[in-house]
Structure to design on (390 residues):
């Protein structure tokens, strides 16, 4: 049987008609698969293009010239026209403007209602719009994974034409236990915003270390407060409440650091705390009349009080935050000062807190004693002068 030139049976002798019919039926049977196009084409005619390098099944459109090839003759793969976002190659019966098309070489485009919504490329996938992960149930995860420890993983947010590789980047760097980064580029503000009334917490080893409260204060997360001693001040915007400030000798990189310290305002004086121990008051004596009441001149003898004081020499020993240094000093024992001048020291002997001297009380009593001594001297000078004149 031979390839027919058309699909018409010519008027001829019986054997010629039979040959004509057999050729037509054979052409239909093998979908005109003779290795070259049919001599005469008809609309919607099937054509098995078995020519070298072709190997595709197709059909002719109604114009009897244009051919669509859509399936491989060797492995059954499907083919389609390139299509476009407005006319996708693969579409759906009830939504012909939604489907898939070839957007460029080695690219697959997705279109919804004639609008490109995604591009699948060899370099990655582009989503044209909102990306939502919303499982019907269970947790919603969004994982970005590399193939091993030799590559970084990143999310790059791009909203300008200056930083086209990422204005804000969240990075996980390669290797086991790699570094994690949040990188903000440009001169604009980098904002972390708890928009409602929530705190912002900073954790390590899954434990809260610091937090910025909704009021705007920076707090040591483990901090609580007590109202049993002093007045509680609720931290507000701009306040800092640490566990302690680590003391530092100078500003050089290798400067020596030591115990953390805190200061506490106890209604009328400033306490200094090293580690968990109070080591004394650091505020200078305040003497403004506006903070004083029941003001009266001292009537008790200053000299008598001074005579009770016991000036000593001493060395500091290891006790709490204090460390022995072998230096000889002059001073007083606070509780002995209290025996002579009750307001001359804070706290009580052997109390929970370290005692400190109140310098203003000492100076005041010393001044009173000096005045008394001066008065005595002046009286004696007057008497001596009278005797010398007599």
């Amino acid at each position: 049987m031979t390839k027919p030139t058309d699909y018409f049976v010519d008027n001829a002798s019986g054997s010629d008609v039979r040959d004509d019919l057999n050729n037509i039926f054979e052409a239909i049977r093998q979908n005109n698969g003779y290795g070259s196009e049919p001599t005469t084409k008809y609309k919607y005619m099937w054509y098995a293009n078995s020519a070298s390098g072709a190997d595709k099944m197709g059909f002719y459109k109604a114009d009897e010239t244009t051919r669509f090839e859509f399936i491989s003759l060797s492995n059954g793969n499907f083919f389609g026209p390139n299509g476009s976002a407005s006319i996708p190659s693969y579409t759906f019966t009830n939504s012909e403007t939604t489907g898939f098309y070839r957007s460029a070489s080695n690219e697959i485009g997705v279109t919804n209602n004639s609008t490109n919504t995604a591009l699948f490329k060899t370099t990655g996938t582009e989503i044209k719009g909102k990306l939502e992960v919303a499982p019907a149930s269970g947790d919603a995860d969004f994982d970005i994974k590399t193939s091993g420890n030799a590559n970084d993983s990143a999310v790059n947010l791009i909203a300008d034409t200056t930083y086209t590789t990422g204005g804000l980047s969240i990075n996980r760097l390669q290797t086991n236990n790699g570094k994690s980064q949040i990188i903000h580029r440009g001169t604009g503000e980098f904002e972390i915003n708890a928009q409602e009334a929530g705190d912002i917490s900073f954790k390590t080893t899954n434990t809260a270390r610091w937090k910025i409260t909704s009021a705007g204060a920076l707090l040591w997360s483990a901090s609580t407060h007590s109202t049993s001693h002093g007045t509680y001040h609720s931290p507000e915007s701009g306040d800092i409440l640490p566990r302690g400030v680590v003391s530092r000798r100078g500003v050089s990189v290798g400067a020596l650091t030591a115990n953390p310290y805190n200061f506490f305002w106890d209604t009328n004086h400033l306490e200094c705390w090293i580690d968990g121990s109070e080591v004394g008051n650091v505020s200078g004596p305040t003497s403004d009349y506006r903070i004083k009441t029941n003001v009266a001149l001292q009537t008790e003898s200053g000299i008598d009080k001074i005579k009770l004081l016991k000036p000593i020499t001493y060395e500091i020993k290891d006790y709490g935050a204090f460390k022995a240094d072998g230096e000889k000093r002059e001073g007083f024992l606070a509780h002995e000062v209290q025996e002579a001048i009750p307001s001359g020291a804070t706290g009580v002997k052997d109390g929970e807190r370290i005692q400190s001297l109140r310098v203003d009380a000492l100076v005041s009593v010393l001044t009173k004693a000096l005045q008394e001594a001066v008065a005595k001297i002046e009286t004696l000078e007057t008497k001596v002068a009278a005797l010398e004149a007599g």
Q: What stands out?
A: The mean pLDDT is 91. The two ends are 172 Å apart (CA to CA). The helical segments are 14-29, 302-308, 334-340, 359-389.
